[in-house]
Amino acid sequence: MVRKFMKFKEAVREATAPVNGAYFPGKMALENRHRKLVTCKDTRRITGSIDLDRALAKEPKYANEPRWDYGLGYQPAGGREQAIWIEVHSAETSEVSAVIRKFEWLRDWLDENADQLRKLTESADSDIRYIWIASNRLRILPHSRQAKQLSMSGIGGPKPNLKLP
After folding, report:
1. Beta-strand runs (E) in 3-69
2. What's the chain's Rg over C-alpha atoms?
3. Residue 3 is assigned to a structural domain of this protein
4. In a 3-state reduction of DSSP, which class is residue 24?
5. How many structural domains does the chain have?
6. Is the preceding peptide bond at 18 cis, omega within 30 degrees of 0?
7. What is the pLDDT of residues 27-41, one digit of tens each?
8. How many angstroms separate the CA atoms of 159 and 23, rounded?
9. Average pLDDT of the segment spanning 83-100
10. What are the start-end ranges of the E strands in the chain?
11. Of 43, 16, 13, which is closest to residue 28 (Cα–Cα)?
């Protein structure tokens, strides 16, 4: 039996409501000011996106949760489609614990509500699965306590942008 690998759009539709209706082509789900922070040499490789934060903001269960911002479908050259998760957030040392809480929330949410998106995430290279993009200047020193907290959590430090091949 040949196993069919699910596409990002299909995986979004398999997620629980209301996220299952939050798919947009390309980077269209990202706020205008955030779209320019994500680039790709071949824009056709960005297969779709969701604004996870906005999709869940009005749900009472998630209204006060530390929600992650975006999910992005990405098709690397010669590879299967993947899910990448992007958080655009202030890059201050005082914000590290907030981003870690969002990251932990996202992993739990994927486990409980979006198994196919979780699988697509696991197929992505580990260095691009979860991306923190700085909404301002980077103010976390590489050898600081906060940088070590980030490393231990499984999410890398903030980047000025995301450049996909």
Report:
1. 38-40, 46-51
2. 15
3. no
4. strand
5. 1
6. yes
7. 999 999 999 999 999
8. 25
9. 97
10. 38-40, 46-51, 70-74, 82-89, 130-134, 162-164
11. 43
